Amino acid sequence: MRKSVIAVLLLAAAIYVAAFYKLFDREPMPAPPMAFVEKTFIEVPVRIASYSWGLGKEGFGSPWDVVKDEEAVPVPKQSVLTFSFEKEPESAPQIRQVISNEEHKVLETKLPYEIIVPETAGIYVYSISASWKDGSAQYAVKVRVKNSL
């Protein structure tokens, strides 16, 4: 009786270990699509702030924290920032001006992927949220509006 209980426990442990290795033996899950600012004469980097992708791959950060140590890219006042994605989102992204780590303002977009930066000189952080069938991501951009370049 005791040997059969030990045999059953060993068999269960072997099945568990095999299932564990099979689960983690897959290729890494893909990351969310990259985002870009296009149609500008200067490169404006876009950073991933947070995402939830695939079967539980997640990364968390606030747009404010992601770009706080980044150099703001100088852009002329009233510049148009046009966002694009490596893979087209299911719906138009939501674009917000990040005022602080806790405060933001939803922006009215010129077109689904475009915003116009303010006329007032200063540093501005923008958050772009987009969703796909496989998950969602939030991106961050930091620019410095100058009166002239």
Structure commentary:
By secondary structure, the chain is an alpha+beta fold. It has 2 helices and 10 strands; from the N terminus they run αβββαβββββββ. The strands form 2 sheets. Strands 2, 3, 4, 6, 7, 9 and 10 form a 7-stranded mixed beta sheet that branches. Strands 1-5-8 form a 3-stranded antiparallel beta sheet, with no helix packed on it. A hairpin with a 5-residue loop joins strand 6 and strand 7 (104-106). The longest helix has 23 residues, at 2-24. It is elongated, with a radius of gyration of 23 Å. The chain starts with a helix and ends with a strand.
Brief description of this entry?
With 149 residues, this protein is of the alpha+beta class. It has helices at residues 2-24, 63-67; strands at 35-38, 47-53, 57-59, 73-76, 80-85, 94-98, 104-106, 114-116, 122-132, 135-146.
Q: What are the main properties of this structure?
A:
149 residues; alpha+beta; seven-stranded mixed beta sheet; three-stranded antiparallel beta sheet; 39% strand; elongated
* Main sheet: strands, sense, barrel: 7 strands, mixed
Give the low-pLDDT segments. Answer: none
Rounded mean pLDDT is 83
Topology as a string of helices (H) and strands (E): HEEEHEEEEEEE
Ends distance: 85 Å
The shape is elongated
Number of distinct helices: 2
Helix content: 10-25%
Number of strands: 10
Proportion of residues in extended strands: 35-45%
Q: Structural class, from secondary structure content?
A: alpha+beta
Radius of gyration, in angstroms, nearest whole number: 23 Å
